[in-house]
Design brief:
This protein has four domains: 1-30 and 97-136, no CATH class; 54-95 and 138-258, 3-Layer(aba) Sandwich (Rossmann fold); 265-390, Orthogonal Bundle (Helicase, Ruva Protein, domain 3); 410-493, no CATH class. It is elongated. With 507 residues, it is an alpha/beta fold. It has a five-stranded parallel beta sheet, covered by helices on one side. Helices cover 42% and strands 12% of the residues. The longest helix has 21 residues, at 317-337.
Length: 507
């Protein structure tokens, strides 16, 4: 029988018995050889490996390919939110579309060379008439999240006294064994997530499977050879905080592959675009690329912050959750104001704090400041970076917007120096929001070429105000999602001193 083509449709005339399968010329392969062969076919056809996994094309994926071509078990080692579980689950795409096994077998027995005592007995009794079952790819993948309460019985199996009593068998009979999840994945892929959380004595139980490829339960003299690909994931933080991987087990895992966060904002934004739910039915929501990039810069700023525990990591879920909250805030504004379309504003960023405060682990200094204060600071750093890359440089001199400030923002700062204020909020109708921004001189001119629509230009105008605040040119007061921009206090003092000097009150 020719090798099954990955992704091929199921054959309605597939063999139903061992004899039919034999006459078709079926040749069994180990699961690792099967994966290797299918992987070779994909590479030769230039098929995309691990669809939906972005940013690993030149790092993680080649390392996984090399491990699979070498028929090795491997572990993915990386911080939270680095797609480790997604990569492991995608391995099923390298299995054949279907695989034959003896019908009724707990261990997915090979029709020609059964592994279990039951399978050998069944084949001896029925011979070529033994019926088959065909297992799909997903049925050949099992996964276990490691927790301290996982037992040997859960993973490998144990003696079942009820089975012994029902069938009147002694405990010396292998038929009394109730198999765990690992042997039930025989001829498939078994994944353990967060391996260090597995108790050391339970990790010892995996040693034989990884090296001798066999299974022993409760000291039974019968050894059960397993055909299985074992893959694992772990977080480096776990090695010191929650547990460890015992040295003999690490030695038996052939490849240790390091994962990582996206190296650039563009890749990170593509990941978020793929994962975040922002298509809200019936609501005219539009999120421009500038704001998508801004959301990603928040995560990048958090990964650079000295106040955030970098050994814990900043998950890609931060950006995903933030973008979903942003879409919800736009949906809420659309329902309140009736605007069409509804686009983001800088004042919307205050509503993204819940996406950060629950996912950022602080170092001691960060805990002293408070997680919300740190989150606001990180958002400010992200906005400042986008502003500096998009708009003219802010004059470094500490001017008040008067004669000593000749930069492009002088008129804007001077307008606020005349005791003018500007109130913006996330629930203003767009017309009111746009009119408030239009009251500030030169602001519309600076934002004119920063967007194709009036909504994008209004966002650019607001970003200019926020950038001036972050560069200490304007003061900003927050009241929930309402923001008031006004003159900076130090500029007020400077102006008053100059006024007194002009009146002769001081030298």
């Amino acid at each position: 029988m020719p090798e099954p083509k990955d992704g091929a449709p199921r054959d309605p005339a597939r063999p139903r018995t061992v004899g039919e399968l034999r006459r078709r010329g079926y040749e069994p392969r180990t699961v690792k050889r099967e994966i290797r062969d299918n992987l070779r076919h994909k590479l030769a056809r230039h098929d995309k490996l691990f669809p939906g996994v972005l940013g690993y094309e030149r790092t993680v994926i080649p390392a996984i390919v090399n491990a699979l071509l070498a028929e090795q078990d491997f572990i993915l080692l990386g911080l939270r939110g680095q797609a480790k579980t997604r990569v492991l689950r995608a391995l099923v795409e390298l299995l054949d579309d279907e695989m034959p096994a003896l019908e009724g077998s707990e261990l997915n027995d090979d029709p020609f060379e059964p592994t279990s005592t039951w399978g050998r007995s069944r084949l001896a009794d029925a011979g070529d008439d033994a019926p088959l079952v065909w297992l799909g790819r997903d049925e050949r993948y099992s996964e276990k999240l490691a927790t301290p309460d996982v037992s040997i019985a859960d993973l490998l199996g144990d003696v079942d006294p009820i089975k012994a009593a029902t069938h009147k068998l002694t405990y010396a009979d292998p038929e009394v064994i109730h198999f765990g999840i690992v042997p039930r994945t025989n001829r498939g892929i078994f994944a353990i997530n967060e391996l260090p959380d597995l108790a050391p004595r339970i990790q010892v139980g995996l040693l034989n499977i990884l090296e001798e490829r066999d299974l022993q339960i409760r000291g039974f003299p019968v050894r059960i050879p397993l055909d299985i690909l074992m893959v694992f994931s772990a977080n480096p933080e776990d090695y010191t905080n929650r547990g460890t991987i015992i040295t003999p087990l690490k030695d038996r895992i052939s490849s240790q592959i390091l994962t990582h966060y996206p190296d650039d904002v563009e890749t990170a934004a593509e990941v978020t675009r793929q994962e975040a739910w922002i298509e809200r039915t019936g609501q005219p929501i539009e999120i421009p690329e500038l704001f998508r990039r801004l959301v990603e810069e928040v995560s990048f700023a958090a990964r650079d912050s000295e106040l955030v525990d970098q050994s814990s990591g900043v998950s890609a879920r931060v950006s995903i959750s933030a973008l979903e909250l942003l879409a919800s805030n736009l949906e809420r504004r659309a329902l309140i104001t009736g605007d069409d379309p509804v686009t983001p504003r800088i004042c919307d960023l205050q509503m993204l704090l819940p996406a950060l405060t629950g996912k950022l682990e602080m170092v001691y200094e960060g805990e002293q400041k408070g997680v919300e204060v740190v989150a606001r600071q990180i958002i400010g750093e992200a906005v400042k970076k986008i502003f500096d890359e998009t708009f003219p440089e802010v004059d470094r001199a500490l001017g008040s917007g008067g004669e000593d400030d000749t930069g492009p923002y002088a008129e804007i700062v001077a307008w606020f120096a005349d005791d003018n204020q500007l109130l913006l909020s996330d629930d203003q109708p767009f017309a009111e929001y746009q009119a408030a921004l239009a009251a500030v001189p030169r602001l519309a001119e600076l934002a004119e070429d920063r967007g194709e629509t009036e909504q994008e230009r209004a966002l650019a105008a607001e970003m200019i105000l926020e950038g001036l605040h972050l560069h200490l040119k304007l003061s900003r007061q927050n009241l929930d999602s309402q923001v008031t921009y006004k003159e900076l206090v130090k500029f007020q003092l400077l102006r008053r001193q100059r006024a007194k000097a002009q009146r002769g009150d001081i030298n």
